[in-house]
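Folding Task

Wanted — backbone structure
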Amino acid sequence: MLVASALWLALAILTTFARVSEARSKKIIYSFVYTQGIGDGNAPAAGVIADANGVLYGTTQSGGGFGYGAVFSLTPPTTAGGSWTEAVLYSFTGGADGAAPLAPVLLGKNGVLYGTASAGGMGGGIGCATDCGVVFQLTPPLSAGGVWNESVIYSFRGGADGAQPFGGVAAGKDGTLYGTTGAVPGILSNTVFALTPPAAAGGAWTENVLYTFQGSAGLEPRGQLLVGKSGILYGTTSNGLGADYSLAPPQTKGGVWTETTLHTFFSFIGDGFAPLAGVSIGKSGVLYGTTSQGGLGDSGVVYTLAPPTSPGGSWTESVIHSFTGGVDGFMPAGEVVVTKNGSILGTTAGASNAFGFAQNFDGTLYALSPPAIPGNSWREAVLSFKGPPNDGATPFGSLLMGKNGVLYGTTSAGGTYGSGTVFEITP
């Protein structure tokens, strides 16, 4: 009887999965090529962004002309059903210009792209003499077909300023860039930093450390920072069990930023732990995030953090979905998308079939719909990645929702050449 019930449950899961798969059209719009040190890019670890014309921009952590990573663009086809056009905008050399970008780029004024490289740079500090990472800008050419110009606006030294920015940068209203460094704690500082743009064109950016993390639960920031109302920064740390935090700007210029731990994860009661992504914000200031591990299935969770109802109160964390490690996936690693109707979209880096075998299930895209009656369970729908030779595998980055609800993202492996893909999913 137990065996029959297990088989029925497995069949029901697979049937539901098939229906969800049929409801959406997944298409690989580009497969990266990088074999024997030759190609355009390899293993993108972050998602893509888009400009007003629908051009996508992203990074690959390796590959490019020198093997140290690249920034690329994908221009949509001019006719329906046509091919996207990929271009490598910049290939990192692994020297002073940086290496191994792990985060998405940020689109600024006049089409300038800003981003981080987790390695390379001038260095000069303790522990990473020439390999502490950089913040860079990429300026578009003055005329079509010209060369993009990369310049390093800050090179981490590995001292009090930190090292190895794993997340990208976020922008404030005044153009200030905010980011984190997440090198190995106890050896190098973990920080939140700000980069203030120069007063005159061509001048130097000014770097300031806003906060240095302390304690085992407040180390190793990994995901994207979120700039909220009143310039408050929100983020996560992954060391130990991990935590969510906020960083409030000073009330007077030049004052001290105030850090508040919003939630410390505690996996032993069904909570998640080790978040690898930052948080997203929804209605009423509610934060949404994921943990890569923990939960009832020990495969990660999706959670919400509701702000306090009165000043100085506690934030309330709720686990709204625990991944099973089966067809719905395990190890979500990217920030979630919160839609206008309150649904949550994201990816998991891995998955297995209903019987626990991982072959042919190389990650998922999931959608969580809020319950019609408060307190009921969220409804989940899943679309899987099948891996090489035709599909992508292991999506680590965040999703981008474009026009008409079309989703764009990357996989770090799979595709025609096994070097990763950019995909679109049409509802």
